[in-house]
Specification:
Shape of chain A: globular
Oligomer: heterodimer
Distance between the termini of chain A: 125 Å
Radius of gyration of chain A: 36 Å
Number of strands of chain A: 10
Largest sheet of chain B: 5 strands, parallel
Order of helices and strands of chain B: EHEHEEEHEHEH
Helix content of chain B: 25-40%
Structural class of chain B: alpha/beta
Mean pLDDT of chain B: 87
Strand content of chain A: under 5%
Number of helices of chain A: 50
Shape of chain B: globular
Strand order of the largest sheet of chain B: 2-1-3-6-7
Strand content of chain B: 15-25%
Helix content of chain A: 55-70%
């Protein structure tokens, strides 16, 4: 018998001495799609007996020690990694088939709310398959749902795995809070090592379409974990390919494999595989008979197609399930998101967090994609059509699914009642067909889209307007799209503004690109306030330069169109919400600066103060925020003007911008802080210990170390927080610090553009460069030397050149090190300890900050405190830069230069060659220049004197309050001779502002006639500040003063709080509250008429408040 | 040849001016030291400019008696200037000369090459290129001249 010719695979196996070499040869000699065949043979070969790939089923989470790419998969192509994984999984397909079945049972029990049963399924999976990330993740998340302690769940895993899982468990505490994924996505850039970044993103985010990581690298890395984890990474990769409809071989092969092991999704349209579901369900829904859908289908199915329909149904009916299972909760959350009214944001966050908790379940992957389709304006934002997700993830072959997958519906003819006909009728609706009369509302939706598709925009508009589309956000968006396409831009703009107001939080869903383009086209001919307002709202989603400047130009053109010179001249009624929003939001400081309505910054800022004052005095808009903004701008204006000097400092962050940008988030954290009882909860000590152990002990690979270091750096402060209240304080600080350090107008950007780029090197080395001794680029120094010493030998020239090269290299590297390490920012886990500008918050900072706040501080106090802390840190950073310059840099520059000079002298003496005097003198000049240039650079890091030591005269207080009120026409005569500490400045400004605005409000005189007098005296060990103003009272003064006394006396905390709310945060209660809580005084406020023409308000300030009465003041 | 140099760094502005002066016989140069003064010069100028040499980071307003410390520094004032030019439909060619390059790991998001790419995409009617200014070398002069050559001749 003729001997069989050895195949390529046989040859590879025979010529290999180890599994690794065989795999490498297979990769080098076979096409990727042949790798599975190779593996099917190889894994049975004796050579692979001891290979880790044969023992994959025995690897568990407790064995996971590294997160690197396995050696044999390093530098392999995506196709090679894919087919390698495919081959391995195919080898274990029987094993995986059972797992897929059990996973399905687990998901079903979970959705039914049978948590104990779900837990039993997980136990069974553990018994059969050992531990895996998938398993441990689900166990921890399930425990959280069951309300059981999750800590014991970490016993069966390695320390490295524990690190991920503890982090997961820790975040589960936030399930009902803000989006967990959002905050993690924003921190991904912390990871510099790409592999670490990829695996961290996958572990913490799963296949979140917003998470950018290398899918194939992750699949390769998962070979360090368990077989189940490899399978999950493969499964999601295939599902994502299917969603994107790549049409590649990998997609087809991967899907076939998933189907072969009983995967629940993507059953192709094949009637034998079609799951049976009562077609009346779909018929009721597509006939808009929502009551029937809701009433008759009580035993709901967890198929995602059904879930989609149910959530839409309850949303349209505006009813919710009384939750009897987990799935009901999910549907209710989805319904809130679909409706985009109350609870929109919170439901989106909570459901998003639930999907995150079970992110390694493909069911929740589907739910999350459906969720995203309800918040994004563009359904193709992630490279696939989000609107098709629910149909693709469904196992029920509806006409829609059939159409999406096969492009036709005919295979389902006869299987559905009215649904099929309705769907088919829409498909058959021709471009010139008349719009049918008496369509039900779902037909309106789809015929409307068909009309738009045919370019029959007016017909579509008429159809939408003839019907009530108020319950359906999709139709509202379609209507707006048709208006845009039909050139009815103004109508579309007005409709968009209404939508944003009606569906607060759902801005991104309605922000279609067509409207934006139309709005930009209309800037030069703007005639409606809605245009700048719409551009502003788009800027909230995407604040780029074009948008910001377009908004500014639209603002200016609108003001000019109205024949005015500034926006505050607009006349409007309080209920004209569009103008109010325009003034409050669009006419902010930054947009005004870019509007070209002002030739001076001070005029633009004054206009903003005027707008804040205008709105707050009429109590429209967010009054607290407006008053605070006005105060901060006024304060800066008055203080800058008082400083009367131009600072040489290049250290800068735009704190006003930071405040405006972060205010909403800051307020939310503040409200959480205030509403949270100041009691300690569980201290996450065990987690902190793990970090410490890993930091000390994990030296297995540099990749692991980097991961551990980054993660611990990022989280250590957070983890060390002992109680919920401090955690909210931490969040407050974190959001400000992030913007202050890394925001578009933050410290890092300015350090980058004003110091690090170009300027630093040019300034520090400029003279040395001019002398031709130092250069960043390769220079022909030898030619220079020949000029100085024309007769020296080649040997001498070579020696001198070498010495010069070393000198040049040392100088450049010293300055670059200073630039790239010292003058950098570290905060919120980004950066390193070498960076001088360190804004990381450690436990000590947190305790210190918390202890300086009283139990219920005002938001202003919190802001001031954090602002103060930032200034302190900035001052420390500048000090550190100065020290670096004075000691290290200055000394090293001198040393390097001296070393070069002595080397030159030595060469001169060794070769007996005289060195040109001019050359030596040049070097001496350069040495000297370093010191003078360093002084200039030092000047860039000089900031004002220590904040705590700053003191102001009382005039500054009245100036600021007067600026806030734009009260230059009021005659204020102040004889109060006081000094005010930095800490007391803001509260005292608030008090004087309130007193002044009350005087303006209650006096019968207008601003020009109003006279205000302020004086301060010492009385019984306290300062009494009195403000009198001209008025006219026609009544019984004694009786009125009795009434006023009753109003102000004996205010306890409760009555103060009540009054504060009643007054809307202004007036007597506000003043009393500031005195008590911010100035540590008793809160005494006295109001009285001195006579019928003079009203007097007086307050008593304690001497410990930071306000000092000058000694020469009469008492 | 009418050129506007929008640059707040006097040393750099002088260096650019000296270079242009050495190349053009009939040169008229206007200077602006901030975003708004540059833009107002464009808006107010009756004759217009043949070329604008623009810095990327400038304050928002000039130092003046009314604003003794000038406007706030703006890291991307140049980009904002280009945005307004584009939106107004101005066609004057603009060359960005900046001391900005692509060093430093944390700067990868805003490296000069990336910024240039973005500026070409967003402002193709006015933006003609960007140059890294380094006082220690002459290469910026050669690059600037190459760009001017493409625009003018």
């Amino acid at each position: 018998m003729k001997k069989r010719k050895p195949s390529a695979i046989d040859k590879i196996l025979r010529s290999s001495s180890s599994p690794e070499s065989a795999i490498n040869k297979a990769f080098n000699n076979l096409s990727p799609n042949k790798i599975p065949v190779f593996l099917s043979v190889a894994l049975k070969n004796y050579l692979f007996e001891r290979s880790c790939y044969r023992g994959l089923v025995d690897i568990e989470a407790k064995d996971i020690k590294t997160i690197g790419v396995p050696r044999e998969l390093v530098d392999r192509s995506d196709d090679q990694i894919f087919y390698f994984s495919f081959g391995i999984l195919f080898f274990y397909r029987d094993y995986l088939e059972n797992f897929v079945r059990l996973e399905r049972v687990f998901e079903d029990e979970l959705l039914l709310g049978s948590y104990n049963k779900a837990e039993e399924v997980l136990d069974e999976i553990e018994k059969n398959y050992g531990s895996s990330f998938w398993l441990e993740n689900n166990k921890i998340s399930l425990s959280k749902l069951m309300g059981t302690d999750v800590n014991h769940k970490y016993s069966n895993v390695s320390d490295l795995a524990k690190l991920f899982l503890k982090q997961h468990g820790f975040n589960l505490d936030e399930l009902d809070g803000e989006s967990i994924t959002k905050s993690f996505i924003s921190q991904l850039d912390v990871f510099e090592n790409q592999v670490v970044r990829d695996i961290a993103a996958y572990r913490f985010l799963g296949y979140n379409p917003e998470a950018d990581f290398d899918r194939y690298k992750v699949l390769a890395i998962e070979f360090n974990s368990s077989l189940i984890d490899v399978y999950k990474a493969f499964e999601f990769l295939v599902l994502e390919m299917c969603l994107k409809g790549t049409g590649c071989d990998k997609e087809y092969d991967g899907l076939s494999f998933l189907n072969s092991i009983g995967h629940r999704y993507y059953g192709l349209v094949d009637t034998s595989a079609c799951k049976y579901f009562d077609s009346r369900f779909f018929d009721s829904y597509t006939s808009s008979n929502y009551e029937s859908v809701f009433d008759e289908f009580g035993n709901i199915d967890d198929d995602l197609g059904v879930v989609y329909i149910l959530s839409k149904t309850v949303s349209y009916m505006d009813v919710r399930y009384i939750p009897s299972c987990f799935l009901h909760r999910i549907i209710n959350y989805l319904a809130d998101v679909v409706r985009k009214k109350n609870n929109f944001e919170s439901s989106f966050n909570v459901l998003g967090n639930i999907c995150w908790a079970f992110r390694f379940s493909s069911y929740f992957y589907g739910v999350y994609n459906f969720l995203l389709s309800e918040v994004k304006a563009d359904g193709f934002v992630f490279g696939y059509d989000l609107s098709s997700v629910s149909a693709k993830f469904s196992n029920i072959n509806t006409p829609l699914k059939c159409y999406l997958v096969q492009g036709e519906v005919s295979p389902l003819e006869g299987m559905f009642g009215s649904t099929y006909n309705n769907f088919n009728n829409v498909l058959l609706f021709g471009s010139t067909d008349d719009v049918p009369k008496e369509l039900d509302i779902r037909q309106v939706k789809y015929i409307g889209r068909r009309l738009v598709g045919y370019g029959r925009y007016q017909d579509a508009i008429d159809l939408y307007e003839e019907n009530d589309i108020s319950h359906d956000c999709e139709m509202k968006r379609d209507y707006m799209f048709a208006l845009c396409k039909n050139g009815k831009t103004l109508n579309a703009l007005k409709f968009f503004v209404e939508l944003v107001r009606d569906h607060e939080g759902a801005l991104e869903y309605f922000a279609i690109n067509d409207l934006y383009e139309r709005a930009i086209d209309e800037i030069s001919s703007v005639k409606a306030v809605e245009l700048p307002l719409v551009l502003y709202w788009y800027g909230v989603i995407n604040n780029n330069s074009i948008n910001k400047n377009a908004t500014a130009m639209a603002l200016a053109n609108y003001v000019r169109y109205k024949g005015l010179s500034v926006p505050s001249d607009l006349s409007f009624s309080d209920d004209d919400l569009n103008v109010v929003e325009f003034l409050e939001h669009v006419c902010n400081r930054d947009i005004l600066v870019k509007s070209m309505l002002f030739r001076y910054q001070v005029d633009a800022f004054d206009e903003r103060i005027k707008i804040c004052n205008l709105l707050s005095s009429r109590k429209i808009g967010n009054t607290d925020k407006l008053v605070f903004e006005s105060k901060e701008l006024s304060k800066r204006k008055v203080l800058d003007s008082a400083a009367k000097q131009v600072s040489s400092s290049k250290v800068y962050a735009d704190i006003d911008f930071v405040r405006t940008k972060t205010w909403d988030e800051f307020s939310e954290c503040y409200n959480d802080y205030i509403s949270c009882a100041p009691l300690d909860d569980i201290y996450e000590k065990s987690l902190a210990e793990i970090y410490l152990n890993l930091e000390k002990g994990s030296k297995e690979s540099s990749v692991n170390n980097e991961f551990v270091n980054i993660l611990s750096n990022q989280l250590s402060a957070y983890l060390s927080i002992p109680d919920k209240r401090s955690k909210y304080l931490f969040s407050m600080i974190k959001c400000v610090v992030e913007e202050y350090c890394f925001g578009i107008k933050g410290l890092n950007v300015y350090l980058s553009t004003r110091v690090r780029h170009g300027t630093l090197l040019t300034t520090l080395l400029g003279p040395a460069i001019d002398e031709g001794v130092v250069s960043e680029e390769a220079i022909d120094f030898e030619a220079e030397l020949v000029r100085f010493m024309p007769n020296v030998s080649k040997d001498v020239l070579d020696e001198l050149s070498t010495a010069h090269n070393i000198f040049n290299k040392d100088i450049i590297s010293l300055v670059r090190g200073f630039r790239d390490e010292t003058i950098q920012v570290t905060a919120n886990g980004k950066g390193t300890v070498d960076n001088a500008f360190n804004f990381n918050v450690d436990a000590k900072d947190l305790y210190r900050l918390r202890s300086s706040l009283n139990e219920y501080p005002s938001i202003n106090e919190c802001w001031e405190l954090i602002n103060h802390w930032l200034e302190e840190r900035l001052s420390q950073a500048c000090k550190r830069v100065h020290e670096e310059i004075e000691h290290r840099i200055s000394e090293d520059l001198a040393k390097i230069t001296d070393r070069f000079i002595s080397r030159v002298e030595k060469i001169s003496s060794e070769y007996s060659v005289p060195i040109s005097r001019e050359f030596i003198s040049r070097l001496a000049k350069v040495r000297k220049s370093f010191s003078s240039q360093l002084s200039i650079v030092k000047g860039w890091f000089v900031i004002d004197s220590a904040i705590d030591e700053r003191e102001y005269t009382f005039d500054i207080v009245t100036d600021i309050a007067g600026t806030m009120l734009m009260s230059n026409s009021i005659e204020i005569v102040s004889t109060a001779q006081m000094r005010v500490s930095h800490k007391a400045l803001s509260p005292l400004v608030d008090i004087v502002y309130n007193l002044l605005s009350n005087a303006m409000k209650h006096s019968v005189y207008d601003k020009k006639q109003l006279r205000v007098g302020i004086e301060a005296v010492m009385d019984s060990g306290s300062i009494v500040l009195s403000m009198t103003n001209s008025t006219f009272f026609d009544g019984d003064i004694v009786q009125e003063n009795v009434r006023l006394r009753k109003y102000t006396e004996g205010m306890n905390d409760r009555s103060l709080q009540d009054l504060l709310q009643k007054e809307g945060g202004s007036g007597v209660a506000k003043i009393s509250s500031i005195l008590k809580h911010e100035l540590g005084s008793k809160g005494v406020v006295k109001l009285a008429y001195l006579d019928s023409e003079t009203f007097c308000s007086s307050i008593t300030i304690s001497l410990e408040s930071g306000v000092i009465l000058n000694e020469n003041t009469n008492s | 040849m009418r050129i506007l140099i929008a640059e707040d760094d006097k040393y750099k502005a002088d260096a650019i001016f000296s270079f242009l002066e050495s190349r053009f016989e009939d040169l008229s140069v206007d200077f602006a030291r901030s975003f708004s003064s540059a833009l107002f010069k464009v808006i107010d100028s009756a004759e217009g400019f043949d070329l604008i040499v623009l810095d990327m980071s400038m304050p928002s307003f000039d130092v003046s008696e009314k604003d003794p410390s000038g406007g706030n520094p703006e890291s991307y004032a140049g980009e904002d200037f280009l945005s307004q030019m584009t939106l107004m439909g101005h066609k004057t060619p603009v060359i960005v000369v900046t001391q900005y390059d692509s060093f430093g790991t944390d700067e990868k998001q805003i490296s000069l090459s990336k910024l240039t790419e973005k500026l070409y995409k967003d402002h193709r009617d006015v933006f003609r290129g960007s140059i890294y200014f380094n006082a220690a070398t002459n290469s910026w002069k050669n690059k600037l001249w190459t760009l001017i050559d493409e625009i003018v001749f």
